[in-house]
Amino acid sequence: MTTITLVQGDITRQSADAVVNAANSSLLGGGGVDGAIHRRGGPAILAECRKLRAGHYGKGLPTGRAVATTAGDLDARWVIHTVGPRYAREEDRSELLASCYRESLRVADELGARTVAFPAVSAGIYGWPMDDAARIAVETVRATETDVEEIRFVLFDERAYDAFAGQLG
């Protein structure tokens, strides 16, 4: 049985087997959650991301997919990088956003992770409306078969926390 919990705070301060990074396709760091994870996790994460780019992910990680690296200096074993879609009114990309959560849990299962901390993927700089991002995230993790024991959504502010709390009912 998987437990879903909510925390308001900084995902880089979480103790978990795996921390999910809302990455960009380059895997080389960026703003928001991505930049924070790379800064706090240190150079080991970037080094492994560069190896991924030099190999199988030469063109970058596709939207909706996930891949793991070391967690470097974070209080975790792994960082699972996933690339969320940019929000677009004219195109329904919700399946790509749901795929980020499913693929991250698939990678977590392959790694043997029992606790996974997720941010609100795509709800920051990628512009996804928070209430809809929360709905997709919660519905997807509830519907995904996984051996992960605790899925923790780590929300940066009260607005995000409230949106996710509303979905958990």
UniProtKB/TrEMBL annotation:
<dbReference type="Pfam" id="PF01661">
    <property type="entry name" value="Macro"/>
</dbReference>
<dbReference type="InterPro" id="IPR002589">
    <property type="entry name" value="Macro_dom"/>
</dbReference>
<dbReference type="InterPro" id="IPR043472">
    <property type="entry name" value="Macro_dom-like"/>
</dbReference>
<protein>
    <submittedName>
        <fullName>O-acetyl-ADP-ribose deacetylase</fullName>
    </submittedName>
</protein>
<feature type="domain" description="Macro">
    <location>
        <begin position="1"/>
        <end position="169"/>
    </location>
</feature>
